[in-house]
Amino acid sequence: MEQNNQTPARAAEQDISQQAAVRRQKLADLRAAGHDPFAITRYPQDAYSEDLKAEYKDLPAEAETGRIVHLAGRMMSKRVMGKASFAHLRDDKGDIQIFARRDVMGDEPYAAFKKLDIGDVIGCQGEVFRTKAGELSVRVSEVTLLAKSLLPMPEKFHGFTDREARYRQRYLDLIVNPDVKETFVKRSRIIREIRDYLDGKGFLEVDTPILTPLEIGASARPFITHHNTLDMDMYLRIETELYLKRLIVGGYDRVYEVGRIFRNEGMDPRHNPEFTSVELYQAYTDYHGMMDLVEELYQRLAKNICGSLVIPYQGQQIDLGHWDRLTMVEAVKKYAGVDFDSWTTDEEARACAAEHKVEIPADATRGKVLTEFFDAYVEDKLIQPTFIYMYPVEGSPLAKRSPDHPGFVERFEYFINGTEFGNAFSELNDPIDQKKRFEDQVAERKAEEPTATCEVDYDYVTALEYGLPPTGGLGFGLDRLVMLLTDSASIRDVLLFPTMKPLDK
Q1: pTM of the full predicted structure?
Q2: Angle at which helices 178-200 and 287-301 pack, to 10 degrees?
Q3: Strands 386-392, 324-327: pairing kind
Q4: What contacts 424, CB < 8 A, 6 or more positions away?
Q5: What is the DSSP string of 39-89?
Q6: Phi, psi at residue 463, to the nearest 5°?
Q7: How far out from the chain centre does Cα 11 lie?
Q8: Residue 387 has pLDDT above 50, yes or no
């Protein structure tokens, strides 16, 4: 007896190929009969599934409306029962049942309807009614094939569940998984709410360059391209900050940008090489003003998008109605039991790190050791919304020094569910201090990477020399915010087309 040694995956591929061949033959037959679906340019769609369901929610079983509608969408199921058939149409707003009868449509149109495949895009004309079973439906009198699906939809009961495949074929993911579509509807609503909030506060939305002429000394690595006409390398931006603050110098008091950022770095559930940031700058305020703005914005988003200040996120109940505020020194003392003020020298700080098995550079300063203690002991404990403020000056080249604590800067980051969601400063506006910090940053980077091409942005220093008023600035990742408000575990779940490693050809 001959054995079949095919793997399940190979058998599935052959089945898909056979189904695709059948569908292509159907298309060929349609064209031969003078009915090319791809030649149709428009359809008079005048109604949507969810709107009809809302309008006729009180319509009793077996009731007629007399209303004729034109629906358009993708056929997601079909059940043929001789002289009558049921199908489900999925449009932009949801699903609705359609009911086809031979005595209503006519023999030839009904026969053509029965040959349609799941996945075909169709237009339907018919009357809205409610069936005996109580389902709002459309009794179709005419069906038009608008686009032939040449590949079969994923198998009904197992669906399209492989995450890698779903990210690569987002169009198919959106077709078969309606909850995914809702995530991206919410993303658009979140962006609209942010813009409405900031516009209402008097901020001006602006655009700044994506291609920049130099690589700054920041730790984030840029993507490099080449401008042929100018014969020069250019860099995709890693932030929008320096251009936005130039606008504050120029006389705008409040500006913001919702913009794409590019960083040539690693990928994980919280990082994608390109992502969207929101950066805003407000003259005549400081980082405390930015804290108040974050609280107000996030509470508005929670109420308007999620309907509550307490939202679920990855098994936690996050209360966006309450925010803690701790200095980094207070947080390390609370969670690590270590008092920064007990270190009088860098050597004492490094010895404490060794005692607590915290990894640090050999030449780490007190401030650097404090930051490493925070990373090791504190960050993952910050489940409820928390502002951590007053950061060591070493890691914050763009923030203003605290007048009372010169080793610290007026900076905060805020954390939810053990993850950093945003970063804010009282912006450094002393051009002399800024120039030195930039030069130190570039020197440190080149000491670590002798081939680094980073430079000091001296034009930004020149802008500061004309006078930047006291300014508060804030930047946060839109994608992480969408993850929070849609209870999504990975950044890839909230990017329509995340960066993926190419498949072997």
Answers
A1: 0.92
A2: 140
A3: parallel
A4: 287, 290, 291, 294, 411, 412, 413, 472, 473, 474, 475
A5: G---------HHHHHHHTTTPPTT-EEEEEEEEEEEEEEEEEETTEEEEEE
A6: -60, -45
A7: 36
A8: yes
